[in-house]
Amino acid sequence: MKIFGILPTALFAATASSPASAFCPTRQIASFGQSTSQLRGEAQTRGDFISTAAVAIVSTSIVIPLRPAYARGRATLEYAYDRYTPRIVEGGKFYKGQLYGAISKGDWKSIESATAEPPAKSKADRSLPDGGAAKRAALAGGFSDSRVLAAMDLFAATFSESSISPKTKAMKAEVEKLREVVQGLNKAARIALGEEKSGGGGLFGIGAKVTSKEELAKTVKDLYLKGGNAFNQYIFIANDGLPVQLAKLPFL
Predict the structure, then answer these.
(1) CA–CA separation, 231 vs 235, rounded Å?
(2) CB 10 within 8 A of CB 37
(3) Signal peptide span per the entry (predicted)?
């Protein structure tokens, strides 16, 4: 078992004995760790953030050697790279920037908007030249399934040919973790805003009982860390064996 995560700096130092550097360059881990540690520092001065969320969630996975897979040829991989990775990279920037800021401030409306899906296609959309695709895409949240996770799934699929490769399976597993995180963040925000009632069970236990905003705040911070781990793990797997003419995708 090897550990890979985006731990706050202090917590990462406490796990220095684990082989985290084998998964991700220390420079990249430190970069995200600085953000989370700064956020924790702000909480100590404001008293409104991560006072109780000092326990980072660390993704663990069995490392399976992944042979380079070129998705039915390098030309196909390059096409998929050009088509999907801009959305993945922008999604990472949004996650580390705007979404981080919304969670640090307890801005529930922004958290809800960031993870929102576009409305279902309407009759009016069907009359548009593109079927309303551009209009609906503009309404998708900055780190929503439609805008980011769908692109991550499609890019992962390009590393398979007639059968699903271990690389594709590993990448898609991280996308599923992110999908649960996005759903959890959106649900927590809706409960906090009074748009959805708590109680009666729910995703990650959210809504299983009447939940206070303080409990919801801790939940979204934990989810954020879990999602960051999954995103970085996806990037690590994607970059492994990537042809040299394609730029490596950036970690958070």
Answers:
(1) 6
(2) yes
(3) 1-22
In eight-state DSSP terms, residue 61 is: E
| DSSP output for 72-84 | SSHHHHHHHHHHH
Are residues 180 and 174 in contact, defined by beta-carbon separation less than 8 angstroms? no
Grouping H, G, I as helix, E, B as strand and the rest as coil, residue 60 is strand
Q: Give the length of the chain.
A: 252
Output the average pLDDT for the chain. 77
Please tell me the distance from the alpha carbon of residue 64 to that of residue 228, in angstroms, as a whole number: 21
Contact status, residue 57 vs residue 226, Cβ threshold 8 Å: yes
Structure tokens at 49: 């953030």
**Rounded CA gap, 136 and 113, in Å?**
14
Phi, psi of 104 (to 5 degrees): -65, -30
- No. of helices (H) and no. of strands (E), the chain: 10, 2
State CA 239 to chain mean position distance.
Answer: 17
Least confident residue range of 51-60, 85-94, 106-115, 231-240 = 51-60
What are the helix (H) ranges across the chain? Answer: 9-14, 26-46, 74-94, 100-105, 108-114, 123-126, 133-138, 150-157, 166-192, 213-239
| Residue from 157, 159, 148, 110 nearest 230 by CA | 148
CA distance 145 to 152: 9
Any idea what DSSP says for residue 122? P
Of 241, 247, 252, the C-alpha closest to 70 is 241
Confidence band for 18, pLDDT divided at 50, 70 and 90: very low
